[in-house]
UniProtKB/TrEMBL annotation:
Chief localization: membrane
Membrane topology of this protein: Multi-pass membrane protein
A Pfam short name: Cons_hypoth698
Protein name: Putative sulfate exporter family transporter
Lineage: Bacteria, Pseudomonadati, Pseudomonadota, Alphaproteobacteria, Hyphomicrobiales
InterPro entries named among the record's database cross-references: UPF0324_pro
Organism: Methylobacterium durans
Amino acid sequence: MLQDNRPVRAPSGLQRWRARLGELGPGVGLCAAVTALSIALQEGEERAFGHPYVEALVIAILTGMALRTLWEPSPRWRPGIAFSAKQLLEVAVMLLGASISLGAIIASGPLLLSAIIAAVFVTIGASYGISRLLGLPPRISILIACGNAICGNSAIAAVAPVIGADSDDVASSISFTAILGVVMVLGLPLLIPFLGLSATQYGVLAGLTVYAVPQVLAATVPAGLVSTQIGTLVKLVRVLMLGPVVVTLSLMAARFRDAGPAETGRRRFDLFKLVPWFILGFLGLAGLRSLGLVPDAAIWPITRTAGLLTVVSMAALGLGVDVRVIGRVGGRVTAAVTLSLALLLLISLGLIHGLRLG
């Protein structure tokens, strides 16, 4: 028998790409299907009620969790699900930088801007402290704190890859934050006569406390146009605080990734190890946007893409969630989110009256 001694050719770049796509395809396709269903349900809410009470992002993670409870994905599905949960989420966070503009921050005025910054950072610190006192782990405490202080589910999704939070942490935080977000939309207008708030004061309060921009609109429209305009402005500036917070957390997280004090003297500064690549991309796009180098026509497609990728990632996170883990921390998470939200309300009211806003 003749022996074939010809060298084995290494796969070409195209063959490797095809193999990688074949590996990721099933899982990514499953997450995309959950995303399509979630968006369709949100659009159904919008047609029925005029605005969504439960966003597609929340529907995706809950649908993924329900599917995971009924069926455990086999190894064929797992690579694509893991890719969607991590890499696609990182791309989404990077793209959000294109919506950040320094001009919008400066235009809000120094007093109101100071109030928003104070509310965000005081709430993050106090909410983190409450969660830790209730016995929650550091990562889920950070997620709850950022979700309450900035923009709910979107903040949780953006912060999660920076601090290395797992799917159970993200699912727990988003699930309970989403429920309270709906409660806020329905209950906040009741405070207008109870607290004697003016239209401007109520707009500031809604912008500082309600989680998502659509929810701010839902909470302020009943109070009139002035409240809606002020609430939307405050909320947008509050959302812009996500950038500095994420960068700060990435720098803090880098300290925990370091090997230890014995190697501190031997380490050289490496920006790409200190700050994740997608945070650098976020800052780069934010800088280009502030300089006017990202055209207005490109903002909607970029932010829309970021939103879609975030929903796909949430579907993937839901598919990786063990509901039993959430059950073990559910009571403490509920208490942490509720107490943090109550604290945010008190801080916001204190700033409104203390700084005489409105």
